[in-house]
Structures are given as structure tokens and as C-alpha cells.
UniProtKB/TrEMBL annotation:
GO terms of biological process kind: purine nucleobase catabolic process
GO MF annotations in UniProt: allantoinase activity; metal ion binding
Sequence ranges assigned to domain Amidohydrolase-related in this UniProt record: 60-500
Provenance organism: Pichia kudriavzevii
Protein name from the UniProt record: Allantoinase
Keywords: Hydrolase, Metal-binding
Length: 524
């Protein structure tokens, strides 16, 4: 017994074609793909013993999205999100696979014991298939191989203070050691690529040669003097990616920084530009520069830059990929492609994330880098927290938890912005959010494509349906996003996971969670 679904518009290997997909709900696999919309009485349907057949025309059928960068925060900070609400949010946006980040849950996924704690808390609570990244922290080199053998997709490390004490930062020297340890293994090292300039002179010739430095126009740091902008970028007090201990101790990071740098006295902590100045593009370039140096020494392991926000690093990424031929991949996020610093209101800390959302000009250049294949994937970096930690009433960007809630928003966001402003097609989105993210997580043999033998994961998308994002209607545990009120074109009307419907517009998510935990070894 099998099922079938068809449409005049099915995304198959880079084209939109008429097709009928035959699949098994039992095995969860695609059995056949016929490049035609079959009639109800087609003998082929009898041959395959198709009991349920639906023609979805003119809706678009695409592979379920694979979001490789999601913080579900369970266990330990379950009040921030959790497996049920996070994976239901994913399902509501056509996402059928998420990979959970190793930090912000307690304990972090940095050894086998902690991975098992994570798996125990995830079991039976996931609405979509869920895999796991491990963490690379200063004392866990011996844990890397056991974690690979246990099924983590790879490891993420921070090159700047992560701001959560259980997940300390690492140095380039340590990255070299880690690359040595995992050599020859099917895995991937990934980095939160921000690194302050403490050990780098901005006039370093080699560094600047491969960096596209933009002129820092006045409007960019409006309200700040150049000296203040420079001081913000140099204050170690402001550099933790997340100011968790400051929030918990009710301290104001900018006030602390001002003690050592009186010039910051008149800086407005509620102005987005003050926060932006504290995390300049050069932080990202500095980190990526160091990562490329490490990769040059150990060019056999796949290395990935998470959430690239600056266009300034694009020349060095091009050099590493195209001239040096290094196995480097780069992702960016929905928010860097759809939001602009110029439009972020004062005090609107729901827009805070690290690295920060930059200028509109920068955003356009990121889209250009996607078209040129320098950036190859787009993810949510879904990273929610409680309203108290966002501190909206105070509006102090330095004292707010950074992170944007957006898992499940990708398809309509990218479709709206991409088609209206950048001439992209639905097939491009499938490449960036399905094919390439599946490849990144070592699942290119089961996920991200509509093909025989692949998982029957589908997003049914109505490109004409318009709607407006409303916080209250999201599935997030904490219903606060940076996209509230945004008018979008295109909407997911149904999500199918391994042959089973897990979400339908108007009905909501399936009664029972059907996601499995992904612990199989990477294919490459
Ligand atoms: Zn993240």
C-alpha cells in the first residue's frame, strides 16, 4: 500500500515540473517520481497499490526544508523554547529537519554524557526530524571522536566570549588541535565567526588585502562620534556575544564600559547604531581570516562559517574557496537578508542578534554572494529567550539577550524578499534551504531532494497567498519575533514528514509528534 501526491509544479533538481510522487507512509520513502500529473485512474497507481492520491495543483510541492541552525534550549532553559514548541514552529513553515545547536541548553552538547541527557529530553517530543551539533569548547578534544561516533553532525565553537559560562570560547591554536583530532573523519567544524581586534592591527597588510573594507559613512554610526564608535568596538566589557551574567545581576554593560572609557558617557544604549558600532564588520573578517589560516594547515576537514552577516569578508571567502580550493562553506540567515539596520527603531531589542543586522547596502551584497555561490545556505539561527531577557521596556541593546526567533519563517520571507527585490526563483530557495543544508549536515542521501529513495518530506507552498506575521499566531513558546507585522507573499499550507502530514494551515500541527532523532553517521 502506498500514497501519491502530484502537482503541475514540483521542484525537482533545480526545475519546476509537473510530477506525481509515489511514496510509502510505512518506510517514509519516495518510491517513484513520474514527471507527469497522473489521472486518478492511471494504471501506474494500481501497480503501486496507491490508496491515497491527491493532486495539489496549482500549489508548489518542494522538498521539506532542512534548517541546520536552530537553538531549542532544552534541557535547562526550556522556558526559552523546548523541543515541542520549536519543532512545531518548524513544521508550520515547511521545515521537516532541524539540527539543534550545542549551546544555550544546559548542559551543552560537549560530551557523550551531555548528549545522552539531550537525547533523553528530546525523545518523543519532536514534530520534525531532529539532529544535533556538538560543541567545541576548550577542554573537550577527547570527546570529539566519541561524539562523532554517537551521531553528532559536527561541532560548533565560538571565537569570542559566547556569554554563557558553560560554553567558553576557543582560540585559533585550539582550532588547529581540533582539526588534527578529527582528521579523516566524516564531520564538520563550524564557527561563530566574530573575533575582536585585540591581537590584530587594522593596518595588517595581508588582512586588509583580502578584506572589502567599506567606508563607514556618517549615517552608519549616526549619533556617535568616530572616537565613540571606535571605543565601542574596543571595549571588552561589551564583547560577550550574550550579556547573560549582566542581565542576571541586573548590571548595565554600557555603564560598566564607561568606567574605563569615559568617552562613552553620552552614548545612548537604546540606539541600534550604538550596538552596531560595538560589533563592526572587522570582527567577522578577523575571525574568518584566522579560520582560513587554520584550514590552510589542515585542508582535509570541512569547515563552515555560521551566520555570516558582513559582506566585507566575501573577498577572503572567495579566495579560500576558489583560489585555495579549501573545503569552506558559509551560511547566512533569514534576518540578514530581510532586515535593515536603517529601519530598526530605538529600543527594539527583538532585533538584536550577534553578529548584528547591518546596513541595507550590506544586505544587498549578501544576496549577491548567494547568487555567486560564495554563500551556499540560508538558515534561521532561531534563538529565542524569555521576554524578561529581551528587556523591551528598558530597550538597552547592550543589556538584552540577542537572538531572533524565526524557525519556519524562511520560505515566505525569502520568497517575498527574493522575488520582489532580487529576481530569485523558488528553485534557488530550495537549493539554499534544502539541498545545500542537507549536504552541510551529511544527509544529502536522504533529505533535501525529491527523488527515489529519499525521505518523503514535502512542503506544500501557495506562492500567491498573502499574510501578515503576527506574534500571537506563532508556535513559539515566547511569542516575540523581529518580523511581527511583516506582510509576506507565499505561505506553507501543509507539511509532510516521511509521508505523514504533520501540519496543515487552519488545522495546526499533528496530534502526535512524528519526528525522529537523527543519529545516523554522516554520509560524507
Ligand atoms: Zn546560533
Amino acid at each position: 500500500m502506498s500514497s501519491a501526491i502530484s502537482s503541475t509544479k514540483v521542484v525537482i533538481d533545480g526545475s519546476v515540473v509537473p510530477a506525481t510522487i509515489i511514496f510509502s507512509k510505512t518506510s517514509g520513502k519516495i518510491i517513484d517520481v513520474i514527471k507527469d500529473v497522473l489521472l486518478e485512474d492511471d494504471p501506474l497507481l494500481v501497480t503501486y497499490d496507491v490508496q491515497f492520491y491527491r493532486n495539489m495543483s496549482p500549489l508548489v510541492i518542494l522538498p521539506g526544508l532542512v534548517d541546520s541552525h536552530v537553538h531549542l534550549n532544552e534541557p535547562g532553559r526550556t522556558e526559552w523554547e523546548g523541543f515541542p514548541s520549536g519543532t512545531q514552529s518548524a513544521a508550520s513553515g515547511g521545515v521537516t529537519t532541524v539540527i539543534d545547536m550545542p549551546l544555550n541548553a544546559i548542559p551543552p552538547t560537549t560530551n557523550i554524557k551531555n548528549l545522552n541527557i539531550k537525547l533523553d529530553s528530546a525523545r518523543g517530543k519532536c514534530w520534525v526530524d531532529t539532529g544535533f551539533w556538538g560543541g567545541l569548547v576548550p577542554d573537550n578534544l577527547d570527546d570529539l571522536i566519541p561524539l562523532i561516533n554517537a551521531g553528532v553532525r559536527g561541532f560548533k565553537g565560538f571565537m569570542m566570549d559566547s556569554g554563557v559560562e558553560e560554553f567558553p570560547m576557543i582560540t585559533p591554536e585550539y582550532i588547529n588541535k581540533a582539526l588534527e583530532v578529527v582528521k579523516g573523519k566524516n564531520t564538520m567544524l563550524m564557527f561563530h565567526a566574530e573575533m575582536d581586534g585585540a591581537n590584530k592591527e587594522d593596518n595588517d597588510e595581508e588582512f586588509n588585502k583580502c578584506r572589502h573594507k567599506h567606508d563607514e559613512e556618517e549615517h552608519y554610526y549616526s549619533g556617535l562620534s568616530e572616537a565613540q564608535a571606535e571605543s565601542l568596538a574596543k571595549s571588552p566589557t561589551l564583547h560577550a556575544v550574550e550579556p547573560l551574567s549582566a542581565i542576571e545581576n541586573d548590571m548595565k554593560p554600557l555603564e560598566l564600559a564607561t568606567k574605563n572609557m569615559p568617552i562613552l558617557d553620552t552614548v545612548d544604549p537604546t540606539s541600534y547604531y550604538s550596538f552596531l558600532a560595538s560589533r563592526p564588520d572587522s570582527f567577522e573578517c578577523n575571525a574568518i581570516y584566522n579560520i582560513i589560516k587554520c584550514l590552510q594547515k589542515h585542508p582535509t576537514t570541512k569547515v563552515h562559517i555560521v551566520h555570516l552577516a558582513t559582506h566585507e569578508a566575501l573577498p577572503m571567502i572567495r579566495h579560500a574557496k576558489e583560489t585555495l580550493g579549501l573545503p569552506l562553506s558559509v551560511e547566512t540567515c533569514f534576518h540578514y537578508l530581510s532586515l535593515k539596520a536603517e529601519e530598526i527603531p530605538s529600543g527594539a531589542t527583538q532585533f538584536k542578534c550577534c553578529p548584528p543586522i547591518r546596513s541595507d547596502e550590506n544586505r544587498r551584497l549578501l544576496w549577491g554572494a548567494l547568487k555567486e555561490n560564495l554563500i551556499t545556505s540560508i538558515v534561521s539561527d532561531h534563538s529565542p529567550c524569555t521576554p524578561e531577557l529581551k528587556g523591551l521596556e528598558r530597550g538597552d541593546f547592550f543589556a538584552a539577550w540577542g537572538g531572533i526567533s524565526s524557525v519556519g519563517f524562511g520560505l515566505p520571507l525569502l520568497y517575498t524578499v527574493g522575488t520582489e527585490e532580487f529576481g530569485i526563483e523558488i528553485t534557488d530557495i530550495v537549493e539554499w534551504c534544502c539541498v545545500n543544508t542537507a549536504k552541510q549536515v551529511g544527509l544529502s542521501h536522504t533529505k533535501g531532494r525529491i527523488a527515489v529513495g529519499y525521505d518523503a518530506d514535502f512542503a506544500i507552498f501557495d506562492p500567491l497567498m498573502e499574510y501578515t506575521v503576527a506574534n500571537a499566531r506563532t508556535f513559539f513558546k515566547n511569542k516575540l519575533t523581529a518580523f511581527d507585522g511583516k506582510a509576506l507573499k507565499g505561505r506553507v499550507v501543509e507539511t509532510i514528514l516521511r509521508g505523514n502530514s504533520i501540519y496543515a494551515l487552519g488545522k495546526g500541527v499533528s496530534e502526535v509528534p512524528m519526528g525522529k532523532l537523527i543519529l545516523e553517521a554522516r554520509i560524507d
